Amino acid sequence: MNTLYRPELLYSDGRLMSNGELLVSETGKILEISEKTNDSSTRVVDLPGKALLPGFVNAHSHSFQRLIRGKSESRLASGSDFWSWRGTMYHAANRLDPQDVYDVARMAFLEMVLTGTTTVGEFHYLHNAPDGKPYEDPNLLAKQVLAAARSVGICIVLLRTAYLRSGFNLPRDSGQIRFFESRSAFLENMDALIQEFRNVFEVSFGVAPHSVRAVPLSDLKEIVGWNRALNLPLHMHISEQVAENAACVREYGLAPVALLNRERILDANFTGVHAIHIDPNEIDMLAEANATICACPTTERNLGDGIFPADCVLNAGIRVALGSDSQAQIEPLEDARQLDYHLRLQRQKRTILDQIAAKPLATTLFECATIHGARSLGLHCGELKPGANADFFTVDLSDPSIAGNSADDLLSILVFSLNRSAVHDVVVNGRIILQDRRHPLHDEIVARYQEVHHKVWRTERLL
Amino acid sequence: MNTLYRPELLYSDGRLMSNGELLVSETGKILEISEKTNDSSTRVVDLPGKALLPGFVNAHSHSFQRLIRGKSESRLASGSDFWSWRGTMYHAANRLDPQDVYDVARMAFLEMVLTGTTTVGEFHYLHNAPDGKPYEDPNLLAKQVLAAARSVGICIVLLRTAYLRSGFNLPRDSGQIRFFESRSAFLENMDALIQEFRNVFEVSFGVAPHSVRAVPLSDLKEIVGWNRALNLPLHMHISEQVAENAACVREYGLAPVALLNRERILDANFTGVHAIHIDPNEIDMLAEANATICACPTTERNLGDGIFPADCVLNAGIRVALGSDSQAQIEPLEDARQLDYHLRLQRQKRTILDQIAAKPLATTLFECATIHGARSLGLHCGELKPGANADFFTVDLSDPSIAGNSADDLLSILVFSLNRSAVHDVVVNGRIILQDRRHPLHDEIVARYQEVHHKVWRTERLL
User: Fold this and answer.
1) What is the Cα A246 distance to its own chain's centre?
2) pLDDT band at A35; cut points 50, 70, 90
3) A301 partner at 20 to 30 Å CA-CA among A43, A237, B408, B416?
4) Are B118 and B394 in contact (CB under 8 A)?
5) Are A30 and A386 within 8 A, CB to CB?
6) Is B325 a catalytic site residue?
7) Is A399 a catalytic residue?
8) What is the pLDDT of residues A249-290, one digit of tens each?
9) How far is CA A90 from CA A53, A83, A128, in A?
């Protein structure tokens, strides 16, 4: 039976409309979006006092990093830069058994759902046992993350990561031994995983060469070539830190984006994650290739990465997706608004990203949190259009963070001020996974997570 | 009867302790904080699974600006700088009748309580009727704001504002006609208000010359002199925008802080709000005078004011309080964490404010949100010590934003990741005003506010 959702306000194409209706098929696809088309053979869900919007797409997540929330905010524990922070992160990564990986991922995914997120792109590089050897099933940990997503009900794209070395002319870092595979093992494992989940609708895959640091160019070219037939999304960290660019120049004589451009690796399947330290030529290259950039502002401010040049990037016509990355916070619209806010701090002007492609600022930022993420992950979601997955959430229009609103101003109020307390219901592929702010597995997920936290942090000092 | 609160974790002096207890008198004062002192003549409130912390002090609020949330995030509506934003704000200010002022203030104060805020410093400059004439009671609107605070149950310090002119050599701006008083009217009205509320415990007052722009130096000196006997907190906007500094230099040959220093206006009662564009000499002057600075990072990023130099200020020993200011967001710990985060973006380093005065970063930021605000407002709250007001809140330790915690790391997790969904109970002066996340007047406050929003924004285009 089809279901007809009748919210007070319905998002459609960058604006909210009164009296809109959303018709969803039994198979979880959007059939129609319209102003009051009625059909007596459908189940009707009235949503008075609610607005219905496409679910957020979190295009870059490392779920296990939820464990370091609050653990790296002191110099005594984690030093004072990105590289010493990474030591804390490795410490957590190296203590997790397969059950822990599942428990921590469920915690992160539950919190995403509570914020209205319906899809996660999980950039997964935790492959081996703590001793650095592959598990009997080398995809065990990837499957734990997939199982966590399915338990919570969030749609997942597993971006399986190739992590082949510590860096140019560097010995293997013992903190990274759970990440390493050979190129051939990576391709073999990737292939096996894709085959195994071929018929699972809410699970899909992408290829994720970790970075130019961790994947030598010759291997990268092989992986990219391997993917030409599959046409999967291809995600890579690029230009998050100045030191990373400098190392790439030392090895190849070019910065990462310029190198990838020369090697014809940039294309419409490519998403560069961070891309903070890129120059105007590199922006042109990414635009020309029709690539996406995934920004992660709440993480980038936490890690001291720098300010993402969102105006130059968006003005060049590049799609910007968003990711919660390190899980310092899981707040999709906080990420979105920071695209503009960090430029405001830098330029001492307001509404920097307004009227790009003639769109209001709130629409541009909301699209970064939704449809551009969907495009980056190769999915048809993040918008309410016929044929798209029925992935959406509702907000309570009387929540104090957004109270006082109308169809005209709600989107702007949401983008700049929404608190998760307003998120009421979440639907993925037509299935309700959060109802009246409550997930059925909430208590179990939190209790299990608390146990993992205790186990990992029993020993207090790290460095 | 005394009440003994027994939470799982209790905040005391910058850290959390297990098995701590808080004893509160019938009159709402803290009597004792200790590890397990038991007394059979007291009412016992067990709080398993909760942490108990001092309530946040919001030292700089313009409650009516809650109305412009989401209304100024487009160039078409509000231009692209601070000064054109101000036009939107004046538009809202000029449409409010006394009932509206009450309704909007209640909305803002309710949201503050939902985030764990127990005290607000309301910088109140809306004095006159819409035609610019004083109401029959020239304190009518101030009393509406006080009534709103008392209705919600939040403790308030009304910082009554002197707004005497539009600026140096400027004609009166018609957008400001509700703000203007003469100096003598200001002092008379201030005096009458203080007398009338002399015996109301949860209401107190401060003096707030709006800025060097809006108060000529001769008047400022009179007001400051008048306050010497009363010894009230004295708050002023200073150095929020570069243009404001430049105007001060044109008029007096000095930037605002240097001018106030020369005139001996800076002292321990003085709080300068914003203080973004100040130089090292001015920082020394504020430190020497034992003055406070109130930063408002969520507003300052929204308005494109610039990055507050928190490291220089805190390293000089200056107390930093925090304010929600324009109410773009009401998130005390988001303000707190931005003190460090905005410097991280600028410097590409982490934990910039860690180990100042040998304190962990989270403690320093938490104290900005609590005890430094209390000091700025002349109150004894913001800490859990014998003799202080029993103003505190509890958090649910299993909330997904902070789940996975211990006494050792909870404060850092709270400061960097707390969502208001974790705030469970709020107590002001020993009285429970939020219980199990619910305020008794919630629905009425939101419904009334929605009506005001509709009335004010009926006409859509502003500029």
Assistant:
1) 27
2) low
3) B408
4) no
5) yes
6) yes
7) no
8) 999 999 999 999 999 999 999 999 999 999 999 999 999 999
9) 37, 11, 13
End-to-end CA distance of chain A: 58
CA distances from A362 to A132, A315, B73, B116 (A): 46, 16, 7, 28
Residue B206 — φ and ψ, nearest 5°? Answer: -140, 165
Domain-located, residue A245: no
Distance of alpha carbon A236 from alpha carbon A206, whole angstroms: 11
Instruction: Give the mean pLDDT of chain B.
Output: 95
Starting at the edge strand that comes first in sequence, how are the strands of the sheet with A270-274 ordered? A56-61, A117-124, A155-162, A203-209, A234-238, A270-274, A292-295, A319-322
Question: Whole domain around residue B413: which residue ranges?
Answer: 3-54+383-438
More confident call, B37 vs A66: A66
pLDDT (average), residues B427-454? 97
A442-457 tens-digit pLDDT = 999 999 999 999 999 9
CA B15, CA B13: separation in Å to the nearest integer? 6
Write the residue in B329, B331, B355 that is nearest to A75 by C-beta: B355
The single residue listed with the structure tokens 């919570």 is A152
Tens of pLDDT along A289-303? 999 999 999 999 999
User: In CATH, what number is assigned to the domain containing residue A15?
Assistant: 2.30.40.10
Distance CA B373, CA B292 (A): 9
CB of A322 within 8 Å of a chain B CB? The answer is no
**What is the distance in angstroms between the Cα of B82 and the nearest Cα belonging to chain A?**
7
Partners of B15 in the beta sheet?
A: B12
Predicted confidence (pLDDT) per residue in A38-77, tens digit: 666 789 999 999 999 999 999 999 999 999 999 999 998 8
Beta-strand runs (E) in B194-281: 203-209, 234-238, 270-274
Q: Is B217 exposed, middle or buried (0-12, 13-18, 19+ CB in 10 A)?
A: middle
d(CA A332, CA A369) in angstroms, rounded, equals 6
Collect all residues of chain B within an 8 Å Cβ-Cβ radius of residue A408: 457, 460
Contact yes or no for A111 and B401 at CB 8 A: yes
- Find the radius of gyration of the CA atoms of chain B: 21
Q: Is B109 on the interface with A (CB under 8 A)?
A: no
Place of tokens 């229009």: A397
Into how many domains does chain A fold?
1
Flag whether B276 is in a domain. no
Nearest to A19 by CA among A40, A3, A2, A5: A5
Neighbours of A425 (CB within 10 A): 23
pLDDT of residue A216: 98
Position B16, amino acid: L
- Token digits of residue A463: 């460095």
CA distance linking residue B127 with residue B139, whole number of Å: 7
Measured between alpha carbons, how far is residue B198 from residues A189, B88, B204, B205, B323 in Å?
Answer: 75, 36, 8, 10, 25
Residue A396 lies in a domain: yes
Q: What one-letter code names the amino acid at B8?
A: E
Q: If pLDDT is split at 50, 70 and 90, which confidence band does B463 have?
A: very low
Q: Of B162, B154, B224, nearest to B193 (Cα)?
A: B162
Nearest CB neighbour to A75, from listed B69, B328, B354: B354
Residue owning tokens 């998120």: A423
Is residue A289 included in any domain, yes or no? no
